[in-house]
Description:
Chain A is mostly beta strands. In chain A, 0% of the residues lie in helices and 47% in strands. Chain A has no helices and 11 strands. In chain A, 35% of the residues are buried. Chain B has 113 residues and is mainly β.
Amino acid sequence: GAGVSQTPSNKVTEKGKYVELRCDPISGHTALYWYRQSLGQGPEFLIYFQGTGAADDSGLPNDRFFAVRPEGSVSTLKIQRTERGDSAVYLCASSQTASGGTDTQYFGPGTRLTVL
Amino acid sequence: AQSVTQLDSQVPVFEEAPVELRCNYSSSVSVYLFWYVQYPNQGLQLLLKYLSGSTLVKGINGFEAEFNKSQTSFHLRKPSVHISDTAEYFCAVSVFNDYKLSFGAGTTVTVRA
């Protein structure tokens, strides 16, 4: 079946601009996660949704970052006033539930964000 | 908080040779452990995971890993690699009721003929 999809695959923007990154999870998955992967590093957690609500946003680096999931499926990560340090690959993952950390998270291919 | 250290950033290996990728973690509570693989231009894919029970875990594509609580390690092994195993491998940890994964920095495996 269809996996997690993310759009766009690449996004180039200028410093100070606003960007939106979209994630379509696997159908029926209630849990959705955003991670950020900088060059040469492993993914770092940003935010986790259970249904429509953000259950844990402790990984968001500052208030320029915001994410929504209004209908419990598609999610959008929004970054305001982008900075060069925001350049990274943004990964989305989903899992069927969030059973205490044991569910397998299925990852999308990522969106590569470049801030000039 | 938990953390993961992958001891080798790059591992070159010849085709049909064995490979071991080392992963150590730190945590004050019991952990769940995962290995993910990222092939070129693809998303992360789960190779295997340890939740509880037998410390030897078998995964896809002939990979296996052993959980060693006393050494806080979860090393990944494959007895004979193929060219197609060329990829980046990530070790990750989570803890009970904490849904986020904490990843290591990754190990790049390059298989040569």
